[in-house]
Amino acid sequence: MPRINDLQTAREVLQAHHTHAQDMRPIDVSACWNTLNKLVRDEDRTERDFLRDELGRVPGALQPLLETTMRLLPQTAEAQPVANTVHGLAHVVTHVPA
């Protein structure tokens, strides 16, 4: 599995999740949301625009990541993955208009 925080595009994050979802741990899922958060908040709007366009084209594009999140987060007693996930998800929702 690639180091999620090192991925450079939203497409790479979504592809990494698609390929490795079954092997992910809560910290990996939180890294997906945290990385998407960083990418959509960048001054260069490329990743924000990509994700907005992808969600317009495929409304359920984030659904697999959301489902993995809902499956894994309740299994952790660690606060950090939960906090990172909530923070990242909130920023993605805020910065990627529907």
Q: How would you describe the overall organization of this protein?
A:
This protein has 98 residues and is mainly alpha-helical. Helices cover 67% and strands 0% of the residues. It has 5 helices and no strands. It has helices at 10-20, 26-41, 46-57, 63-72, 79-95. α1 packs antiparallel against α2 and α2 (26-41) packs across α4 (63-72). It is globular. The model has no long low-confidence stretch (mean pLDDT 93).
Largest sheet: none
Classification by helices and strands:
mainly alpha
Amount of beta strand = under 5%
Tell me the series of helices and strands, N- to C-terminal: HHHHH
Could you say which overall geometry the principal axes of the C-alpha atoms support?
A: globular
How many helices does DSSP assign? 5
Provide the helix percentage. 55-70%
Number of strands: 0
Which regions have little confidence, pLDDT < 50, spanning 5+ residues?
Answer: none
Our measurement of the CA-to-CA distance between the termini, rounded to an integer number of angstroms, reads 30 Å
Rounded to the nearest angstrom, the radius of gyration is: 12 Å
- Overall pLDDT score: 93
